[in-house]
Amino acid sequence: MKTILVPTDFSEIALNAVDYAAEIAKRTKAKLVLMHIYHVPVVSSEAPVILPVWEEIEKDCLQTLKKIKRTVNRKFGKDLVVECICQMGFAVDEIIKQYTEDRDIELIIMGMNGAGYLGEKLIGSNATELIKRTKCPILVVNEKVEFKNIKKIVLAFDYQKVPDKSTFDFLKYMVTLFKAQLLVVNVEKTVNKLPSAKKAAAGVGLENILEGINHSFDFIESEDTIVGINKYVSEKKADMLVFIPRKHGFFDSVFHESNTKRMAFHTIIPLLALPE
Question: Kind and range of the H or E element at 99?
Answer without folding.
Answer: helix 91-101
